[in-house]
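User: Second chain of the day. Same drill as before.
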Amino acid sequence: MLAGRSFTGGGIPFLVGSKSKSETEIQPRTMSATEAFDNMCAAFSSSIELSERESEVFRLAMQGKNLSVIASELFIANSTVKTHLRNIYRKAGVSNRQELIEAFQTFERIEERQSSR
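Assistant: Same format as last time:
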């Protein structure tokens, strides 16, 4: 039975069962590498004002996925992915994917330094 067990759903710890919060200590959940990556992608996307769809394309591109795979996963045409990537490059002030990767890595280093202060 699930009574008294602690579960995490959507990143928020919660209890199931008969024990109260005072009887059961809830341990904070650590963020997975995937969640940390997704959060950093979201922060970068927000900082350069990407649309929701551009943010999705950006995250997949930063995972190393090629144009065809991105198009397939998002159910859009290759030409649409190309358009989104061009818009992302323009907003990030870069010319190609390698420069975008470098800009993202620089952003990550800055964010990590600021969060460790």
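The two ends are 44 Å apart (CA to CA).

User: Great, on to the next one.
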